Amino acid sequence: PDKKVKVVYEKPIDFTKIDTNLLPTVIIIGRPNVGKSALYNRLIRRREALVYNTPADHVTRDIREGIAKLGDLRFKVLDSAGLETEAASGSILQRTTSMTANVLARTQFAVFLIDVRAGLHPLDLDVGKWFRKNAPGIKPIVAMNKSESLCDGVGSISDAADEARMLGFGDPIAISAETGLGMAALHDALQPLIEDYMLQVLNRRPNVGKSTLLNTLLQEERVLVGPEVGLTRDSVRTQFQHEGRTIYLVDTAGWLQRTGLEKGPSSLSVMQSRKNLMRAQVVALVLDAEEIVKARRSMTHAEVVIARRAVEEGRGLVVIVNKMDLLKGKRNSTSFDKVMEAVPVEIQTVIPQITGIPVVFTSALEGRGRIAVMRQVIDTYEKWCSRLSTSRLNRWLRKIMSRHSWKDQAAQPKIKYFTQVKARPPTFVAFTNGKTQLSDTDLRFLTKSLKEDFDLGGIPIRIMQRCAP
Ligand code: GDP
Ligand code: GDP
């Protein structure tokens, strides 16, 4: 029976299916009366709350822990009301109770609440100091609570935000625990952090063969520098010469391997991997063919998220399916063809943002696929750098407009002219008259046609709309 691999990812991570024990913990901190309990209650929505048995310590109160639901996100949330006396009292700032140490050691992220009506309070600064000292690896998200009370809109929120930045934890968000205002902003601030964390926990496919592949690639090349251990223990950078070009190869080895739940260093390495992603022009994502057959899907959640992020950051993407030699044995003889056939299709479904993603099948062990990998990487890089002249683009625009059969004349987007304003990745501007608003469908149509007609597969393309002068 033809059991074709087919998975459609609605979301990168389905939090409802994750064992709550694996979820990260977010602690709500802040001086008394800023609304910590109110936010806690909103996040858990009367879900079952565990109450710690606190030691007979007169300084602390109970600490509540529950499972928070915020849009599609799930996480454990701690209401630190039990720690606040300690945190907010300058006099005992030097003292760290074992309770505090215990709680903070189990925490990965923090929301630092301030009361926007009161402005920045000296106790807020104390809480900041306390947190920095006791949880140096965590950068809290500063949330200005009670923001619904500032509805005049004449700069008061932005003044408050300027003040909140003085805490030194970056840009604040405005929320109201009582009315629910700003919960989307809180979601957006937490999502990348929690997603990265879950990727580390959920990833079960570490040894795809990146290092072996790297060695295969480098065997034939003139290595200029490296492998040199990068800024962190997780990245290795090698510089080599390929057909007259200098290529920098950054291996983000540690990103996916790390399944441990240590907090400080692991969150640092995630940040470092993101920086590596930002620095690269082309991201080569290596998958393990044997795992694909076993799991009956091309990519794990972690891999999907990396690929999507690469695209969002405007990088070119090449997918490498390694260990193809393992599929050639007797038992698996049909797997080989199936993987070759199904993986490109599936990857395209999972990452619809860019079409024509190149997929290369390799066996690093047998040294196969090296040339194809290099060809695709360079090809993708060149597409990423490509510049199309305005005259060529406008000839093309007229052609696709007449080629396409529009429902009626009115449905046809009225674009006066089209030009490329930037490369790396290719970015275009569609000039229209003042009244026309290009719809998502129009933009999709333009993107798709650009990719097909100019062979721009595997790279993200950006189109903006402007009013013609
Ligand atoms: P905690 O001491 O930090 O846990 O603060 P609470 O959650 O007990 O809240 C302190 C006070 O602020 C209570 O009277 C809440 O009703 C009020 N409060 C909490 N959140 C908001 C909010 O978003 N807007 C307004 N106006 N009041 C709030
Ligand atoms: P990394 O963790 O992604 O860098 O993976 P490694 O390069 O360390 O490889 C993990 C394991 O897979 C090692 O035992 C390699 O020998 C093996 N391996 C790597 N590439 C291939 C391949 O193409 N075919 C087979 N059969 N094994 C491979």
From TrEMBL:
The keyword Methyltransferase does not apply. Residues 387-466 form the GTPase Der C-terminal KH-domain-like domain. The keyword Magnesium does not apply. GO terms for molecular function: GTP binding. Keywords: GTP-binding, Nucleotide-binding, Repeat, Ribosome biogenesis. Residues 25-146, 205-323 form the G domain. GO terms for biological process: ribosome biogenesis. Transmembrane segments: none annotated. Belongs to the TRAFAC class TrmE-Era-EngA-EngB-Septin-like GTPase superfamily. EngA (Der) GTPase family. This is GTPase Der. It comes from Salix dunnii.
